[in-house]
Amino acid sequence: MSSERPRARLLLTGAAAPAWNLALDEALLASEGAAVRLYAWEPPGLSLGYFQRFAELGPELQALEQRGFVVVRRPTGGGAIAHIDELTFCIADEVGGPFFSSDVKEGYRRIHRAFAAALAALGLAARVRGEAALASDDAAAEWLCFCKSSALDLEARGRKLLGSAERRVGRRVLHHGSLPLRANPVTPGAASVASELGREVSFAALAAALVPALVAEFAVELVAEQPTDDERARAAALVAEKYGHASWTQRR
User: Fold this and answer.
1) Phi/psi of residue 11, each to 5°?
2) Of these residues, 28, 82, 84, 145, which one is catalytic?
3) Which domains does the chain show, CATH number per domain?
4) pLDDT tens-place string over residues 59-114
5) Rounded CA gap, 52 and 35, in Å?
6) pLDDT category, 130, cuts 50, 70, 90?
7) Which end of the chain, N or C, is less packed with Cβ atoms under 10 Å?
């Protein structure tokens, strides 16, 4: 019997425009095999959850656009996220692959457990929220992901630190989420890596801590690669046809 670990691609794609980021995530969902992508946003993006109603958030979105945020809509649900000074991650795989089973909650638990282990290696204690309310929860701003928490989110000292969302199409799974490196000006009540450690941690340093944590949690071999030409072409088409258009962003 082979003792080789399953292989997953590690895609460190750096900072990119909001529409491209979401399009590339969807391209990975439509691809084959397992992939972990770590990236950032330039310019800053405000990603709406798939089910959020654009018209109901008009004044809030206009205010954020005036501050330089580009509004886009994710293919996954949940609340809106202001993406700035963060590490964003995407994990794409099949049900039954190294990352996901038919138990949706178990996938969340394991991914967040790997992030907690990576943060612990940096000296930051993060834990699953459970049933306790958080100081960062704000009923007046629940349309924002980091102002509303769920039992599986990671928290640090009573404030939300990491949230994620998922979409399943057939047997393919797209799971992505955000971990703030610094205090977010849109959701200042939430935790960040810098606010909890009292020092700056770079994107590269956090990624370096996360890779062995994912390897340990999921027993995979992560191999550094880049998106394929086909994935880039599909992402470009999705920007042109979907994520770069108001018809998609304002669809609800």
Assistant:
1) -110, 105
2) 145
3) 7-249 (3.30.930.10)
4) 999 999 999 999 999 999 999 999 999 999 999 999 999 999 999 999 999 999 99
5) 27
6) very high
7) N
Residue found by looking up tokens 């606010």 in the block: 195
Quick one: 105 exposed, middle or buried, by C-beta within 10 A (0-12, 13-18, 19+)?
Answer: exposed
Q: Summarize pLDDT for 155-172 with one digit per residue, the tens.
A: 999 999 998 999 999 999
145 is catalytic: yes
Q: Give the pLDDT confidence score for residue 112 in this predicted structure.
A: 97
Largest distance between two CA atoms of the chain:
60
Amino acid of residue 84: I
CA 175/CA 162 separation, integer angstroms: 13
**Tokens at 144, concatenated:** 């924002």
Cα angle, residue 64 at apex, residues 62 and 70 outer, rounded to 5°: 95
Map tokens 């969807």 to a residue.
Answer: 26
